[in-house]
Amino acid sequence: MPHTIALVDDDRNILTSVSMTLEAEGFTVRTYTDGESALQGLLARPVDLAVLDIKMPRMDGMELLQRLRQRSGMPVIFLTSKDDELDELMGLRLGADDYITKPFSQRLLLERIRTLLRRNEASRAEGSGTPQGGVIARGDLVLDETKHTCSWKGKPVQLTVTEFLLVKALAVRPGMVKNRDQLIDAAYGENIYVDDRTIDSHVKRVRKKFRAVDDSFGQIETLYGIGYRYKEA
């Protein structure tokens, strides 16, 4: 079955042109012109991936993403204003998987959509060569690749696709330092350019989620100027 993509933007020209491109590539597309209608539609009929503009009437993209993340871990790409770093960082901290700045190349958007969908499917597939049929256990941390679930001390931790892949990349080899380029490759795939601050924002959000479950969580360590590592409890 074709993947279903949601486009949420108050610019009808963007909705029309991007929809035509995606449909020509075999995707099913649903469009929304404001955040409120998108929230109702996406909760009633989930999609495989959503592309959200930030500045929209009735409910902006930031609030829409925040509301969606309470119910769904679907991959999300943000469309941000050119050179607006605040929008990008806020979007990542709220749980966006990727962002593209306007004006953007539709071929680039298509590539990012396909990359995210591949990662989402791969992370849900049974891991080859992973102990216990796709389950990674590191002390109090349990990652289930088959179900795409994460728990800490027996309590669920809701992670997005990107966050799940980052935690997995660190946890599979406790004590080993991963630099930002290695984490970008693990979370986004090779040949995808992502700014270093994107990884830093994702790690901050991951820590916040674990500390909401256990305020003493400190397994993800920062080595300033080098990268990150997972310290097994």
What are the salient characteristics of this protein?
Rossmann fold; phosphoprotein; 5-stranded parallel sheet; 44% helix; 4-stranded antiparallel sheet; globular; 233 residues; 2 domains; Arc Repressor Mutant, subunit A; Two-component system response regulator ChvI; alpha/beta; transcription regulation; transcription cis-regulatory region binding; 9 helices
Helices and strands in order, then pairings?
Layout: E1 4-8, H1 12-24, E2 28-32, H2 35-44, E3 49-53, H3 61-69, E4 76-80, H4 85-94, E5 98-101, H5 106-124, H6 131-134, E6 135-138, E7 141-144, E8 149-152, E9 155-156, H7 161-171, E10 178-179, H8 180-188, H9 196-213, E11 220-223, E12 227-230
Parallel strand pairs: 1-2, 1-3, 3-4, 4-5
Antiparallel strand pairs: 6-7, 7-8, 8-9, 10-12, 11-12
Helix pairs in contact: 2-3, 4-9, 5-7, 7-8, 7-9
H/E series, N to C?
A: EHEHEHEHEHHEEEEHEHHEE
CATH architecture of the largest domain: 3-Layer(aba) Sandwich
The largest beta-sheet arranges its strands as 2-1-3-4-5
Sequence stretches where pLDDT stays below 50 over 5 or more residues: 126-133
**Global Rg:** 18 Å
Q: Tell me about the biggest sheet?
A: 5 strands, parallel
The termini sit apart by 43 Å
Beta strand count: 12
CATH superfamily of the largest domain: Response regulator
Q: What's the level 1 CATH class of the largest domain? A: Alpha Beta
Helix content: 40-55%
Principal-axis shape equals: globular
Tell me what portion of residues adopts beta-strand conformation. 15-25%
Mean of residue pLDDT values: 84
Instruction: List the domain count as a whole number.
Output: 2
